[in-house]
Design a protein that fits this description.
This protein is an alpha+beta fold. The chain is 16% helix and 43% strand. It is built from two helices and nine strands; from the N terminus they run ββββββαβββα. Strands 1, 2, 3, 4, 5, 6, 7, 8 and 9 form a nine-stranded mixed sheet that branches. β1 and β2 form a beta hairpin. The chain is globular and about 40 Å long. The two termini are 25 Å apart.
């Protein structure tokens, strides 16, 4: 894991072993409220079904990661967000695909999140993270968040 800088912001980059398939680019929202973090459970019938993750999705061609995240949150949660700084980036290879995932600090700006394209939503505290199962691509981020209490406000 190493530090990178982008527009004056520092964030961590974690890279795991790459396999020989094209990376799927993903943007994910870190939405904190009242010392809790929003997570969503992946629906049945999709890759990594039943695991908990951070809301977001695949970036479309020509779309910025920030625009992708705003679109995905409207589609998945029926609410609006402001996308803030990049917090963490990870490239992780699964047997069937590689994901290049970027996690952004976000704020709710319109509506209340609803589980539209996921099985469930939860607001969890830092101490509850271990009670949920997350995809391997999120583990390095979770370790980083454990060391960053200032984000949980």
């Amino acid at each position: 894991m190493r530090w990178r800088s982008l527009s004056g912001h520092r964030f961590f980059v974690k890279s795991t072993t790459m396999r020989k398939h094209t990376a799927v680019e993903v943007a994910a929202a870190l939405v904190f409220r009242n010392e809790k973090l929003l997570i969503a459970r992946r629906p049945s019938g999709v890759h990594l079904a039943g695991l908990w993750e951070f809301p977001g999705g695949k970036r479309e061609q020509g779309e910025s990661f920030e625009s992708c995240l705003q679109r995905e949150i409207w589609e998945e949660l029926d609410c609006g967000i402001t996308v803030g700084s990049l917090v963490f980036k990870n490239v992780h290879s699964y047997s069937e695909k590689t994901v290049d995932i970027r996690f952004y600090h976000c704020k709710l700006t319109q509506g209340e999140p609803r589980a539209i394209e996921c099985d469930a939503l939860e607001w969890i505290t830092k101490d509850q993270v271990a009670d949920y199962s997350f995809p391997e691509a999120d583990v390095a981020l979770l370790e980083y968040l454990d060391r960053c209490p200032h984000l949980w406000v």
